UniProtKB/TrEMBL annotation:
GO terms for biological process: green leaf volatile biosynthetic process; regulation of DNA-templated transcription. This is Transcription factor MYB48. InterPro entries: EOBI/EOBII-like_plant, Homeodomain-like_sf, Myb_dom, SANT/Myb. Keywords: DNA-binding, Nucleus, Repeat, Transcription, Transcription regulation. Residues 118-149 are annotated as: Disordered. PROSITE patterns: HTH_MYB (PS51294), MYB_LIKE (PS50090). It comes from the Eukaryota. Residues 3-55, 56-106 form the Myb-like domain. Residues 120-145 have a biased composition (Polar residues). GO terms for molecular function: DNA-binding transcription factor activity; sequence-specific DNA binding; transcription cis-regulatory region binding. SMART domains: SANT. One of its GO terms (cellular component) is nucleus.
DNA sequence: AATCAGGTCAACCGCAAAGAA
DNA sequence: GTTCTTTGCGGTTGACCTGAT
């Protein structure tokens, strides 16, 4: 049988529509067969990628929030370049998107943040113990247990690191509704505020 | 206005693992 | 147990965009 020339490069709108339709009918499997059946001059692999990274329902596109950013940094530190694993913790985001975001935004930022963290840690051990307490609360309040492996409680170090990382993210919104500016940890040029500690947190 | 450099992101490639025959 | 096919993953590429000169 004559090998048909496969299209490459950017997808056209009508190709997207056709692919979405055929996936709705056939389901997300047998991509080679699906690609042939669809009449698209695309490889199964290409169809699969397009579907997973762009057409799949409930995908978020663009603007990665500060919440997501800090989660990516933390998970990358925890798992390394296991993008699919990291992506599972960020609903609506694809491994490809996270990988790209890491390479273009965070890879450069992370060492700077870590350095700041190191400097901050060495001068703020009291804050660290307070953060350690908070780490436990953050973990227990996270209803999605896929978020952390069993028994994964963030160390004071990693949490202190995390808080410091956030200092570099102006639009940080993590639990913003619950947070207030905390005077104890706000210095003139490097604000390290996080949620004020309350008796409620200890329950 | 032209061009160059650096950044971004969608798509491709190659490999390995998983599953089917 | 072996071979073939399919799927999933991470790294890389290349087109496009934007800002600086």
């Amino acid at each position: 049988m004559q090998e048909e020339e496969l299209r490459r490069g950017q997808w056209l709108e009508e190709e997207d529509e056709r692919l979405a339709m055929i996936v709705a009918i056939s389901g997300e499997r047998r991509w080679d067969a699906l690609a042939k059946d669809s009449g698209l001059k695309r490889s199964g692999k290409s169809c699969r990628l397009r579907w997973l990274n762009y057409l799949r329902p409930n995908l978020k596109h663009g603007h990665i929030t500060a919440d997501e950013e800090r989660l990516i940094i933390r998970l990358q530190k925890q798992f390394g370049n296991k993008w699919s694993k990291i992506a599972k913790q960020l609903p609506g985001r694809t491994d490809n998107e996270i990988k790209n975001y890491w390479r273009s935004h965070l890879r450069k930022k992370a060492p700077v943040y870590e350095q700041e963290c190191f400097e901050d840690n060495t001068s703020n051990s009291e804050q660290k113990s307070s953060i350690s307490n908070r780490a436990t609360v953050l973990n227990s309040s996270n209803s999605d247990d896929s978020f952390s492996e069993k028994g994964d409680c963030y160390s004071a170090d990693s949490l202190a690191n995390e808080v410091t990382l956030l200092d570099g993210i102006p639009s940080w919104s993590y639990e913003q509704s619950r947070m207030e500016h905390h005077m104890y940890f706000c210095s003139s040029n490097l604000c390290s505020c996080y949620a004020p500690w309350t008796s409620e947190d200890n329950n």
